[in-house]
Amino acid sequence: MPRIQTYKDRPVVLLTNDDGPPCASSPNIFSFCKLLQSRLGWDVRVVIPDCQKSWVGKAYAISDVITASYFYPLEPEGLTGEITATARPLKDGETMEWILLSGTPATCTNIALHNLYPGEIDLVVSGPNHGRNSSTAFALSSGTLGAALAGALSTPLPGPSTGESSLHLDHIPCIAVSYGVVTRPVTSRVLDLATDAAADVCEKLFNDWGWDEDHEKGRHLVQVYSVNIPLVEGDLEVGTRKTAWTNMWRNSYGRLFKDTTLSKANYDPGDNSNQNKPASASTNQPQNTNIPPGDSTTSTAGPGALPTPTPTLPSSPSIGADKEAGQLKFHFAPDMKPLLFPPIESLPVGSDAWAFAKGYISVTPMRAQFACPIEGSYGFGKDENQGKAAGSLWD
Question: What region holds the Survival protein SurE-like phosphatase/nucleotidase domain (predicted)?
Fold first, then answer.
């Protein structure tokens, strides 16, 4: 098909994520945003969580009051910039205004589409996530995918800014982008190549969006593309880069939590002793001098593509003492090795995990729904050979 329909000559794109503002656990969004603007000429609106919110899936915290603040990132990496309670004109040296919300990634998408920019957004891009989201175990947990699915489930209304009917009657087209760390340290060269590849994939999808054949809805546009980019320099060079259409590897995880005496887990998927970091931690966060601490309570936990290190426990009280006092506490500490490094011969050819293991960029079309059995798979075990179909009544 031709490129996605747009309200204006210049596409208006919502960029969101689950890693929050630029920092060690969110090192890619600023450079990616700039490339979407400079190379593709897109009008990018950034609405992201005010802190890292991995592994929350497509959650909405319906009892929370969501607060917004405005962030004005500064060059060269967006690691600093003023945060204000209300919007203001750009100052010298500022080129963008980002909106930070105290909600989940899915909340950011829905509020952006319906409250902040109604009737304006042509495409939602979520990411780039700092960590892969290939396979069902990661994808169904991912806030990055959750933000994209929230867009796919949103039917935008005509907005006061245009007064026109929505061009996207069924859903907003959405892309989720994830960078999969393979080895550390992750060099600036690798990140530059990954960002170049991500922009290239987004541009190609935007200009030639695919179709989905659905027995219920018929032929309609693909709702979501999940893009996974392995951070391997040799595989990302322009002359050797390969991209594959894939399906999603169906896998599962085991235990995700361990006993702890910590009052709060502080593990960050981008915070690894082997990862390159800025020299000064004080320059690693946006400068927020005007906003009181937010009410966000989501733990900064998630797979950074290497197994989670065990947090340092305080010397007292011991875990046993807590248990004797009747206080059980657990922290997120999964063993991701089976998911991150499965034997390649165990991976179905054509799956996103297989492509990742081969060093290919994977592009997986998705529907915003729980997968249903194919026709003929309904019924009890004794009905296996009778080909029950959806709509069949119980005997």
Answer: 13-253
